[in-house]
Amino acid sequence: MRFLSSRRRHPAAKALLLVLGLFVMGAFYTVLAPAGQSSADTGTSQQVEEGRALFAVGCSSCHGLNGEGQASGEIQGPPLAGVGAAAVEFQVGTGRMPMARPEAQAPVKPNRYTPEEVAALAAFVATMGPGPEIPDPSQYDPAGLSEEEIARGGELFRTNCSACHNFEGAGGALPGGKYAPSLYGVSNQHIYEALITGPQQMPVFSDGVLKPEDKREIIAYLNTLHEEPSQGGLELGGLGPVSEGLWGWIIGIGGLSAIAVWIAAKGAKAK
């Protein structure tokens, strides 16, 4: 009996039991783990590798092979760690990237990548560091919003966006050769991605600044505004009273001045 009790109190017994328990738990996990997990990981890894190959050909000359960026030389590109998949989808999906040549701002141009290639590039860049993910359609689909919510979206847009994009999203000039692009024809997804990533000189409107429902209401307001038919007359680019007053001054006052000069000239000849 003394021999058995001493065996039970052996100092290695607890350690051996712990190792045995871990082994049993590992065996159970291997048997019971869902089979789809490994296939999903394989698919993601394949997508990342496809994105890596595309990145090496189309992006690495500016951003470096590993997205570390280049801060010297004629061609410069910022580091991409932490920009997130949403920034890649926006920049590449709108054709802004890759840039044809260094400019003050990347212009919109036809996209040279397929949706699958854009997704692969986004997946690869997302591995460089955590950042905004590509939004789900439910986040930017304005369907079902009430008139009051759309009107609130207009207030949010005029407060946060109209200083650069104009009160109806027609765009506008900024210092240093830059500009706020027109929002006409921009997809709901790209508007949402621009809000959460802050492309170029645009600030980032995080969920702490504009809640997801706020962003959705802004998108609903822009859709409603841009779907309204023209009520006649010259729209003048939707630039509002400044442009209207300018043309009123040039044509109106200029025309009256020309008439006054003509009358004075005719009167002088009559004498």
UniProtKB/TrEMBL annotation:
Residues annotated as transmembrane: 246-265
Domain of life of the native organism: Bacteria
Residues reported in the UniProt entry to bind heme c 1: 59, 62-63
Keyword field: Cell membrane, Electron transport, Heme, Iron, Membrane, Metal-binding, Repeat, Respiratory chain, Translocase, Transmembrane, Transmembrane helix, Transport
Domain Cytochrome c: 46-129, 148-226
One GO location term (cellular component): plasma membrane
Chief place of localization: membrane
Catalytic class of the enzyme: translocase
Catalytic activity from the UniProt record: a quinol + 2 Fe(III)-[cytochrome c](out) = a quinone + 2 Fe(II)-[cytochrome c](out) + 2 H(+)(out)
EC number annotated for this UniProt entry: 7.1.1.8
Subcellular localization(s) per the UniProt record: Cell membrane
Positions with a binding annotation for heme c 2: 161, 164-165
Post-translational modification: Binds 2 heme c groups covalently per subunit.
Signal peptide per UniProt: none
SUPFAM superfamilies to which the protein is assigned, alphabetical: Cytochrome c
InterPro entries: bc1_cytC-su, Cyt_c-like_dom, Cyt_c-like_dom_sf, Cytochrome_c_Oxidase_Subunit
One Pfam family this sequence matches: Cytochrome_CBB3
Topology relative to the membrane: Multi-pass membrane protein
GO terms for MF: heme binding; iron ion binding; quinol-cytochrome-c reductase activity
Subunit structure: The cytochrome bc1 complex is composed of a cytochrome b (QcrB), the Rieske iron-sulfur protein (QcrA) and a diheme cytochrome c (QcrC) subunit.
Listed name of the protein: Cytochrome bc1 complex cytochrome c subunit
Species this protein is from: Friedmanniella luteola
